[in-house]
Amino acid sequence: MGSMSRLSEIMMANNHLAGPFPVEFCHLNSLKLLDLSMNNISGYIPSCFSPLWLVQVYLSKNKLQGPVTNAFRNSTILVTLDLSNNHLTGQIPNWIGNLSQLSFLLLNNNHFEGRIPVQLCNLGHLSLIDLSNNNLSGTIPSCLKITTWNEISQEYVHYVSDVENVKYYFSIDEPIEFTSKNKSYSYKGRVLTYLSGIDLSSNKLTGEIPREVNNFRNIFALNLSHNNLIGPIPLAFSDLKQIESLDLSHNNLSGTIPPQLVGLYSLSYFSVAYNNLSGSTPVFTAQFATFEENSYVGNPLLCGKPLPKKCSTSGASPSSLPKGSTDKGFLDMTAFYGSFVASYVVAILSIASVLYINPYWRQAWFYHTGEISKRCYYFLEDHILPKRFHCGN
Fold first, then answer.
1. pLDDT of res. 286
2. Residue 212: what pLDDT?
3. Which residue positions in the chain have pLDDT lower than 50?
4. Cα angle for residues 204, 210, 211 (degrees, 5° grid)
5. CB atoms < 10 A from the CB of 77, how many?
6. pLDDT of res. 296
C-alpha cells in the first residue's frame, strides 16, 4: 500500500486489524482521509507520517502508545484529529498550534501529561476540543477560544484552492463522539457544523477558571469537572447564551453562584456539585426549576431550592456576624452600663473640682444644700410622718 502514492482515502474502521501502525504510510503523500478507528493497531505513530494534504484522521479506539512527536506536524490543513481512547503518553506537542485549520481535536482517554499548550490559542478555528481523562496539570489558558464549524467553513474555501480538499472538508461523515449533559453522544454530518464544546474533565488542572470564558462564542457544552480548580465561578458564564450543558462539579470552587446564570435559557444540564460554594442557589425559575438537588449536592454552605436547607430570611445571617459578637438587640447592655457609670463619675469629679477651686461657689453650694435638706425634713415632718402615726393608731 505504501507504493500507492496517489491514494487519497483509507477507510478501514471497525475491523480486526492488528499490529503496528504501518510505516509505509509515510509515503502516502496524497492521503486526505485516514480512518482506522476501532481496531487493534498498536505501537507508535511514525514521526514521518505527516501528509501535506491530510484533512481527516480517525485513529480512536486502538492500542496506540508512546508520545506524538512529529506525526501530523506538516499536515497544516488538518481539520479533524481524533486520537482518543488509546494509550498515548507524553505532552501534547507545541507544534499543534501550527495546524491553523484544526477544528476537531479529540485526545481524550489517553495518558497525556504536562500543561495544556498555550499554542492552542493560535487555533482560531477550533470548534470541539476534548482533552478529558488524561493527566494534564497546570492552569487553563485564558486565551483559549472556541467557535463553530459553520462560522469558519467559508474561510476554509478561500484558504484551500484545491476543489478536492474543499470537498473532503465539507463531507465529514465519520462519527465524532463527545460527552455532553453527562452522556456520550455520536455526532456526524451537518450537525457538526453547529457543534462547539470543550471537555477538560478528569485531569489535574489547577488555578481559577479564566474570566475570559466569553471567548467561547456559541459554545453548547463545557465540562471542567473532576479537577482541582479554585476560586469563584466567573460572572462571564452568563454571556454564554447558547450553552446547553455546564459541568463544574468535583472541584474546589468557592464563593457564590452568580444569580445572572438564570439568563442562560438554553441550559438543560447544570452541575456544581461537590465544591465549596456558599450562599443561595439561583432563583428556582425557568430552566433552573428543572435542576434537582444532585446539581448542588456536596456544598454544605449552599441553601435554597431544590436543596432541603432553607436560606435565612433575616437581614444578616449568623455566619455574617463579626466573630465573638452575639445577636441581643440594638444595644450591648454591658457597654451601656459601663458608659453610664463612667459619665456619672466624671460629673461628680467635675463638680468637686469646681467647688474646691472657687470658695464662693463652695459656700453657696453648702448653703443651698442645707436649705434643701431643711425643706425636705419639714416636708416629711408635716405631711408624711403624721399619716404614718395616724394609721398606726
1. 85
2. 85
3. 2, 158, 161-163, 166, 315-333, 389, 391-393
4. 155
5. 21
6. 96
Q: What is the DSSP string of 323-349?
A: TT-----S--HHHHHHHHHHHHHHHHH
Which domains can be identified in the chain, with CATH numbers?
9-320 (3.80.10.10), 333-392 (no CATH)
| Cβ contacts of 296-300, under 8 Å, gap ≥ 24 | 296/272, 297/273, 298/249, 298/273, 298/274, 299/272, 299/273, 299/274, 299/275
Q: Give the pLDDT confidence score for residue 326 in this predicted structure.
A: 39
Residues 124, 125, 127, 132: what is their CA dihedral angle, to the nearest 10 degrees?
A: -60
Inter-residue contact 74 to 93 (CB < 8 Å): no
**pTM (two decimals):** 0.76
pLDDT of residue 188: 80
| 306 preceded by a cis bond (ω within 30 of 0) | yes
Pairwise CA distance, residues 49 & 26, whole Å: 4
361: part of which helix (H) or strand (E)? helix 359-379
3-state helix, strand, coil split of the chain in percent (to 5) is 30, 20, 45
Please state the length of the chain.
393
Angle at 261 between CA 260 and CA 262, to 5 degrees: 90
State the virtual CA torsion across 243, 245, 250, 254 in degrees, nearest 10. 30
Close Cβ partners of 206 (under 8 Å, ≥ 6 residues apart): 137, 138, 139, 227, 228, 229, 230
State the pLDDT at residue 213: 81
In one letter, which amino acid is 86? N
Say what the pLDDT of residue 389 is.
Answer: 47
